[in-house]
Amino acid sequence: MSNNNDHNCGCASPNLSLPWKEMESKLFALNAASDVIIQDGQSFDFSAVMQLVSMLSSKPSDGLKGFICIVYRSLADAIGSYSKWISTFKENFRPLLLFLAIGISEPLSSNACASALRKVCEDAPVGLEKWHLSLEDEEEVMHAISLVLGSVPNLELKSNLLARLLSSSYEAIGKLVDPEKSLSLKQNPASYTQILNAASRGLH
After folding, report:
1. Domain range summary for the chain, segments of one domain joined by +
2. What's the mean pLDDT in 108-116?
3. Three-class SS of residue 97?
4. Which of 20, 43, 56, 129 lies at 20 to 30 Å from 155 by C-alpha?
């Protein structure tokens, strides 16, 4: 993807007049060439891609409209294709998760964003599970995941996925109702708050 428009991406919004069709064409080409680029093993600068992700990780008040939905889909396809490289950098995860969560809510980009979200989570670096989103951001991501789960036709698979999703909340609730563990947690306010938040997510 060309860097000609990089200076626009950091502060623009989807409502501004940008060369969306040109961007989408470049994203489509980048995705189409992913097998060759990855097999070649050469490093690739994804800064332009991530600037576009950051720009689109704030949902417009009136939702996604027009050609921007196609850009969302092509960008999500590119993220999925290069997830192992993009996931190397932890600073990419917040805008990535928010971008994909927004796209999952839109019919035209939902499949591409759901697939990219799965690949990004599979390729996440060790230790990322200890990293926390703000409650507002987490709510956006959890809403997106619930939409994906709701579309799973197999009830047994859906139940298993839901159990995995809520496992951390169940574990947190178990610690809170255990007198010894609860007392120990209360002596560490930061850990106690974290456990309370995790438990509340499972009860929300």
Report:
1. 6-151, 167-204
2. 88
3. helix
4. 129
